């Protein structure tokens, strides 16, 4: 990649494959996915439900239950160290400390029997060497950072006493407690209404700058992506189909799936017209179509699409799309790189 | 966000998000609990019983107790409740402190009130210690089955562990030589089995599921089948057998009752844990880098404890009944010490001459057990939101 210098890369997921084994079949949830996150950058992982976004995120933190999960290949380099080789106790030192996660459902991600002060302090207790008075001060400051009014009084509140938006703010405060270098946010605004969603997104933007951290933001909502992303990876059925800067994706999408997603996005210019919807459904991860997984739903599909896996086609400046049919700038990319090959 | 709002800052939620009325969990529990009058009555009796039993311990103990449960006044035998003592025929020490025989006297002229006081402490401790043991074992077993249930344990290791336990049991029952041999053999076997496993941990995984399935079983299967086996025993007769073999002592009875009544708690905790371990906040706790121990005891246990608490309350009633039953049959606490069960048992011979001797301990057992059951039911209604509608 031309615009990246090697030392800026905080997280590099290389060729990651995660499978789930059941009695008689193997669900290939993630198949040869590669992406990286630079320091202090916001990277969005976009895709429909079940395309492997969340599995990728949980794998980074080593939270995939094995069995039934199984990491079939690849590396996850965090600050130059392969997380897949780390022992459980080493991972516990990284989780919450250097990589934190914000979950989708703020309603259920907080423990109902503890006050929010206790829950925020817990990460500090585990990872930082502070006195209890210092912990309280840090909690107050964190709650203030995430915009909870009168934080000192709220420390003694239970999760059920907070509104959904406030709970998500608390979750974010928990994630920030130990100054992580990377925050993985797994659809943190999906369960919130649109107004609160906008607030939380602005909060993420502001915190990312003030705390100098990288954010890996997982979402299915291109509207969210357009607000916060520096770079975007579009996933479909366990593979990355397109990657690039935000402008590449929104102004010059090269993969039919990305184009369809954008067309399905409600915008002001489409007012009064029926929104486009992509025909068909996401393939079952245990029975994916051969060749390009998107070809049964693709308007540009040619017979080759169902036979050979498409390779990545480089449009320059970090913009790549996995669709040789729409690529005209060079030799054919069919089968050159397999799906599990290097990006 | 209104159009006139200042540039976005992290603090802009201050006006936007609604305040939910503040009420702590305990206030909420108490508000709901108060509606159930029977449960409140049960709780009051529970507290009274606790106070009486504790007071009874101090009032009846020592060389010069205020209420002496062992003082024999043969000339005052089988006096009815509230009878005045014949002061002229008694020594100064022998006059009951209240001036009357509040609950009458038994066939040896002992003050039934003093004996009931002494027995209350026995009932209380039997109830609490036995249930404490049961809940402790239940939480441990249920927690293991619920949290680590999907892990495999090798049958070889299991057999060696059984050998260790059998060795310890033999040692305790006095068969020292054989016990030492079996126990040491078990330890050696375990050490031998566990050491090479760490080195070749990776190769064993690649043997595949078939080998693993043949010589290993799930922790969940192991523990829950053991629970099923324990439930098959008619526990009262098991207790009778054990008590007949062991020296008669109140502590043996507590332990035996505890060891035979943990299965319910284990099932409750397992069921709760199976549901809880899939909860988002457990995943969030893991993502915070917390260890298994902390997740189990700090995050999951407080959420799983409600049904255990309820079953423990009712379990105390059952334990009191069991102890009374054992004492009635003569297997309980040895005779000089009074318990409600053996007062009842002794009074049975005089049921027509002195009905209060059976009536009073019987009524006391009835009231306490009923109070505990009502209290437990009330707790369950409050702690289980699904049942709340009933008293709403």
Q: How would you explain this protein's 3D organization?
A:
The complex is a heterodimer of chains A (343) and B (392). Chain A is 28% helix and 22% strand. Chain A is α/β, with parallel strands linked by helices. In chain A, helix 3 (116-127) packs across helix 4, helix 3 (116-127) packs parallel to helix 6 (164-176) and helix 6 runs parallel beside helix 7 (194-211). Chain B has a two-stranded antiparallel ribbon. The two termini of chain B are 39 Å apart.
Topology of helices and strands:
The complex is a heterodimer of chains A (343) and B (392).
Chain A (H helix, E strand, L loop, with lengths): L8 E13 L4 E13 L3 E5 L6 H8 L8 E10 L2 E2 L5 H7 L4 E4 L13 H12 L4 H14 L5 H4 L9 H13 L5 E5 L7 H18 L2 E6 L2 H7 L2 E6 L2 E7 H6 L4 H8 L49 E2 L5 E2 L22
Parallel strand pairs in A: 3-8, 3-9, 6-7, 7-8
Antiparallel strand pairs in A: 1-2, 1-4, 4-5, 9-10, 10-12, 11-12
Chain B lengths: L12 H4 L8 H11 L1 H24 L51 H36 L4 E3 H18 L3 H24 L1 H6 L2 H7 E3 H14 L2 H11 L4 H10 L3 H14 L3 H8 L4 H37 L11 H8 L8 H28 L9
Antiparallel strand pairs in B: 1-2
């Amino acid at each position: 990649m031309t615009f990246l210098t090697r030392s800026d890369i905080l997280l590099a997921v290389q060729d990651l494959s995660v499978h789930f084994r059941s009695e008689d079949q193997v669900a290939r949830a993630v198949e040869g996915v590669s992406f990286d996150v630079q320091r202090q950058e916001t990277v969005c992982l976009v895709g429909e439900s079940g395309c492997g976004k969340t599995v990728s995120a949980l794998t980074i933190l080593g939270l995939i239950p094995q069995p039934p999960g199984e990491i079939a290949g690849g590396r996850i380099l965090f600050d130059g160290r392969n997380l897949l080789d780390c022992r459980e106790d080493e991972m516990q030192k990284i989780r919450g400390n250097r990589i934190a996660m914000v979950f989708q459902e703020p309603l259920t991600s907080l423990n109902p029997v503890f006050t929010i002060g206790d829950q925020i302090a817990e990460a500090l207790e585990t990872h930082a060497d502070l006195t209890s008075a210092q912990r309280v001060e840090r909690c107050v400051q964190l709650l203030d950072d995430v915009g909870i009014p009168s934080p000192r009084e709220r420390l003694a509140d239970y999760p059920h006493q907070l509104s959904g938006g406030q709970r998500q703010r608390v979750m974010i405060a928990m994630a920030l407690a130990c100054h992580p270098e990377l925050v993985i946010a797994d659809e943190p605004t999906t369960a919130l209404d649109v107004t609160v969603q906008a607030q939380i997104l602005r909060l993420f933007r502001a915190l990312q700058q003030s705390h100098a951290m990288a954010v890996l933001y997982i979402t299915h909502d291109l509207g969210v992506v357009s607000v916060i992303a520096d770079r975007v990876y579009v996933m479909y059925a366990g593979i990355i189909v397109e990657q690039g800067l935000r402008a590449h994706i929104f102004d010059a999408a090269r993969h039919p799936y990305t184009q369809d997603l954008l067309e399905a996005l409600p915008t002001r210019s489409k007012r009064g017209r029926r929104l486009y919807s992509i025909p068909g459904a996401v393939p079952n991860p245990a029975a994916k179509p051969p060749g390009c997984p998107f070809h049964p739903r693709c308007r540009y599909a040619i017979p080759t699409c169902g036979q050979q896996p498409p390779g990545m086609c480089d449009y320059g400046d970090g913009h790549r799309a996995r669709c040789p049919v729409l690529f005209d700038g060079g030799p054919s990319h069919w089968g050159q790189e397999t799906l599990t090959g290097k990006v | 966000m209104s159009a006139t709002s200042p540039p976005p800052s992290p603090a802009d939620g201050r006006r936007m998000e609604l305040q939910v009325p503040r009420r702590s969990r305990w206030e909420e529990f108490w508000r709901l609990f108060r509606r159930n009058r029977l449960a409140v009555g049960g709780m009051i009796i529970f507290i009274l019983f606790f106070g009486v039993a504790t007071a009874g311990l101090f009032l009846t103990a020592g060389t010069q107790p205020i209420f002496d449960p062992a003082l024999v006044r043969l000339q005052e035998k089988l006096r009815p409740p509230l009878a005045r003592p014949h002061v002229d025929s008694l020594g100064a020490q022998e006059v009951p402190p209240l001036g009357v025989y509040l609950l009458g006297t038994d066939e040896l002229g002992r003050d039934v009130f003093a004996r009931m006081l002494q027995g209350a402490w026995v009932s209380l401790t039997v109830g609490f210690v036995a249930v404490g043991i049961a809940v402790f074992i239940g939480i441990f077993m249920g927690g293991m089955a619920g949290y680590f249930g999907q892990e495999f344990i090798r049958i070889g290791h299991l057999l060696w562990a059984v050998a260790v336990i059998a060795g310890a049991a033999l040692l305790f029952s006095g068969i020292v030589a054989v016990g030492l041999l079996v126990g040491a053999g078990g330890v050696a076997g375990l050490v031998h089995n566990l050491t090479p496993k760490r080195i070749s941990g990776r190769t064993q995984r690649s043997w595949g599921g078939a080998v693993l399935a043949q010589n290993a079983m799930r922790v969940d299967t192991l523990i829950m089948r053991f629970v099923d086996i324990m439930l098959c025993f008619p526990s009262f007769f098991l207790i009778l057998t054990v008590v007949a073999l062991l020296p008669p002592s109140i502590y043996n009875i507590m332990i035996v009752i505890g060891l035979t009544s943990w299965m319910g708690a284990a099932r409750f905790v397992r069921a709760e844990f199976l549901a809880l371990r899939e909860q988002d906040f457990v995943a969030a706790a893991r993502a915070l880098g917390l260890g298994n121990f902390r997740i189990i005891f700090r995050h999951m246990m407080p959420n799983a404890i409600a049904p255990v608490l309820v079953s423990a309350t009712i379990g105390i009633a059952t334990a009191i009944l069991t102890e009374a039953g054992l004492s009635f049959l003569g297997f309980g606490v040895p005779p000089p010490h009074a318990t409600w069960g053996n007062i009842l048992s002794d009074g049975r011979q005089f049921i027509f001459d002195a009905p209060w001797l059976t009536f009073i301990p019987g009524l006391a057992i009835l009231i306490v057990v009923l109070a505990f059951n009502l209290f437990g039911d009330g707790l369950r209604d409050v702690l289980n939101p699904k049942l709340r509608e009933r008293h709403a």
